[in-house]
Design a protein that fits this description.
The complex is a heterodimer of chains A (about 120) and B (about 110).
Chain A: E1 4-7, E2 10-13, E3 19-25, E4 32-38, E5 44-51, E6 57-58, E7 67-73, E8 76-81, E9 90-96, E10 107-108, E11 112-116
Parallel strand pairs in A: 2-11
Antiparallel strand pairs in A: 1-3, 3-8, 4-5, 4-9, 5-6, 7-8, 9-10, 9-11
Chain B: E1 3-5, E2 10-14, E3 19-21, E4 24-26, E5 31-38, E6 44-50, E7 56-58, E8 64-68, E9 73-78, E10 87-95, E11 102-103, E12 107-112
Parallel strand pairs in B: 2-12
Antiparallel strand pairs in B: 1-4, 3-9, 5-6, 5-10, 7-8, 8-9, 10-11, 10-12
The chains are: A mainly beta (about 120), B mainly beta (about 110).
């Protein structure tokens, strides 16, 4: 159980275009999901906390207008990278924990590698 | 503020030998501690966690970790390493009243046949 699906796995886009990444909890409900960014040979940087039915909470230094997060249902959160530029190229990973389990571990999607040309 | 330190960028061990991947943490209150593993171009997989109770925690794939409150450590161990254990390992912490999980920098484990 506790499967998180992330799509797409790989995406290549031109500079200036927008890219949407989906994160779905397949067998549990998640009122909160987390979006991370991982640079090569580096740890995960928490970008934002996605809250179902309300605005996302962004970490300091993360541009909310650049990285749009929508959490429209208890099983789906989306991250849209708007007007992407080469410096936005990275590995983006989402995670979730079943609702009500504050002590629980996180379950991660497989990640989405974005390359902006 | 919460923080996690993984002092080793890389750990090399021969197959069949015991392995240890180190982790120390700083958190206010009682910690929830986790270990995750990441294979290339993949998301993270949960290995084990410490919430309360026995200081020695057993997890997936034969891994275990020992919580040491006085040393604020949560080292990951395995009695006999396998080549397939080669991956990137992350230690993570969350405080009892908190919501965010903070990750260490990661330690790359190489197991040589």
């Amino acid at each position: 159980g506790a499967v998180v699906s992330q799509h797409p796995s790989w995406v290549i886009c031109k500079s200036g275009t927008s890219v949407k990444i989906e994160c779905r909890s397949l067998d549990f409900q998640a009122t909160t999901m987390f979006w991370y960014r991982q640079f090569p040979k580096q740890s995960l940087m928490l970008m934002a906390t996605s809250n179902e039915g309300s605005k996302a909470t962004y970490e300091q230094g993360v541009e909310k207008d650049k990285f749009l997060i929508n959490h429209a249902s208890l099983t789906l959160s989306t991250l849209t990278v708007t007007s992407a530029h080469p410096e936005d190229s990275s590995f983006y990973i989402c995670s979730a924990s079943p609702s009500g389990k504050n002590t629980g571990e996180l379950f991660f999607g497989e990640g989405s590698r974005l390359t902006v040309l | 503020a919460q923080s996690v330190a993984q002092p080793e960028d890389q750990v090399n061990v021969a197959e069949g030998n015991p392995l240890t991947v180190k982790c120390t943490y700083s958190v206010s209150g009682n910690p929830y501690l986790f270990w995750y593993v990441q294979y290339p171009n993949r998301g993270l997989q949960f290995l084990l966690k410490y919430i309360t109770g026995d200081n020695l925690v057993k997890g997936s794939y034969g891994f275990e970790a020992e919580f040491n409150k006085s040393q604020t450590s949560f080292h990951l161990k395995k009695p006999s390493a396998l080549v397939s254990d080669s991956a990137l390992y992350f230690c993570a912490v969350r405080n009892t009243g908190g919501f965010k999980t903070i990750f260490g920098a990661g330690t790359r484990l190489f197991v040589k046949a």
